[in-house]
Fold this protein.
Amino acid sequence: MTIADPAQASPGSTAFHHTACTLDCPDSCSLEVEVADGRVTKVRAAPPEVAHPLTGGFICSKVGRISRHLYGEDRVLHPALRDGAKGTGDFRRISWEEALHLIVERMIEAKTAFGGESVLPLSYGGSNGLLTQDTADAILFRRFGASQLARTVCAAPSTAAALGLYGKMAGVALEDYEHAHLAIVWGANPSSTGIHLVPILRAARARGGKLVVVDPRRTPLAKQADLHLQPRPGTDLCLALALHREFFHRGAADLEFLAEHATGVDDLRRRAEPWTFERAAEVTGVPARDIARCYEWYNTSSPAVIRCGWGVERNRNGGSAVAAILALPAVAGKFKVRAGGYTMSNGAAFRDVGRREPSPGTRIVNMNHVGRVLTDPDANSGPPVQVLFVYNANPLATLPNQELVRRGLKREDLFTVVFDQVMTDTAAYADLVLPATTFLEHDDLAMGYGAMVLHDTKPVAQPVGEARSNLRVFGALADRLGLLRDDDPRSEAEWRQAVLGRRRQRRLANEGLVLPETGRRPIQFVDVFPHTADRKVHLCPPSLETESARGLYAFHAEPGGGRYPLALISPSVPQTVSSTFGQLRRGQVPLEMHPEDAAARGLGGDKPRVRVFNDYGEVRCRVRLNADLKPGVALLPKGVWARSTESGTNACALAPDTLTDIGAGACFNDARVEVEALSDVSARRP
């Protein structure tokens, strides 16, 4: 049973609502939410008759315990104005009317003195709903003439690679992996995010299929795999090119398919030529015999599918690595059968969803360089940033070069607004904090990028405190600034129609969820084709060739020198979605090291407290030995909050703000560090 409006629930009543998760995860789970007196009491998987099939009767523990996030002590309950030094978290309560008036006043002041580009909106995927980003906020900031943000902290290189090779083409449906005779999971850890792929892969193995996992650590899925390849961070490109070379050298490449459906074949063949198994083994640290075994299995298996994750892109070679991996099914001839091909993002299943506010032609700020832009007026053309509006993001916990970002947020002349559900690390440096609703408290649209499904979601619980939705707040600000036009959407229903179109909106209203027009489980090169101008795979797209300084598929060697010999990775973990829910973690988050690396530094046992450092910053925390890591690789999880380390810093304090070869993405996995026992450290900082 559902009720249309949670605000109308009678005292003492309990109701069950069906909705979907909009958080940044591929699965877009169908949910059943139990609500008592307007408050969420339980969240579970929706029953099969109303659920998207991928949900599979279970959901992640993060969302299952979301009431701790909704009603925890960190929830922002009302607008608050800074009442102390930046970073102390001291605020006093004000009204929404005062808050909106102050924002408009400061934006106008900044525009008058420095121009509209002195206002910078900063957002990413903290909501991931289609109504909570790039709708009313785009009207506000673009028509105001604000600087534009290049959202490049994740998925930019992989998106550039996928678009360059295939355009927007839907991938293999995750449910179809059950039929694969071979599945290669490359740079993804579905045990942490996208959990519904795990039982599907188990079912495939039970049917006789093989599983290969490519990851520098022995993840839970890698422990179940038939073959685990552990490349050094940043060397996936070499591994993929070695596989390409072998296909061409052995005459196993599907030249008939390539002649009909691909361009750039000879260019790819030439660039793969130097990468023998032996050379790839030397660079990647993966034994040549294991690379050969992976090749043999992939060559002789059909259907064979590659699940390419976003861990591959987080380094200087990231874009080329993703391109080389996505090119493998074309060269090996793995398309045209169910469960054959690749999957990365399946957002392409809904190609025409979204409303696009025209670009005003203002400057574009790469979000990986926010620290530079906030601290150095010459770092980006245009005026200094005077107003920073943060929403759907926690940049202090998620952007590289963390200490530079912190220094920028401390600027007394910078007016920072943070619009969020909880008091994040970034909010502590804000001048004004606004309370935002969660996806259970506002209207939205949830589109899976693993699951091929589009959900309509309605509020199922009363907003906590004075929390308001993004649509409501950005619409109010645009109205006060005189930016709205007569034909602009105003209500949630009007925004749904603007984003979806009338036909899909009607389907959603009738069915609650919509599947792609191509069907829920399309076959690549049968039901869906490259969305390029000639409908062919562009194995060496000229656009990517021009963008990469050394050309596409050119390998950039190990960064840094001998001072910092350990490669630091910061993968997703089951406790958080990026930094979302990070406030709920209890105790310190440790640095994980291979026992050999710890022993070489005299760590472990009686010296559990360590300093992890490089020229960018340091993290002080405890150390945990982990034999599942590759020697030479250390790990600090993604999205750790200040409260979870002794130093109040996380892996972002050690991550360079350099950019990937294509896509201008983040290079988190290019962090190189040294570790020493904290008791042996003087007070100096690097």
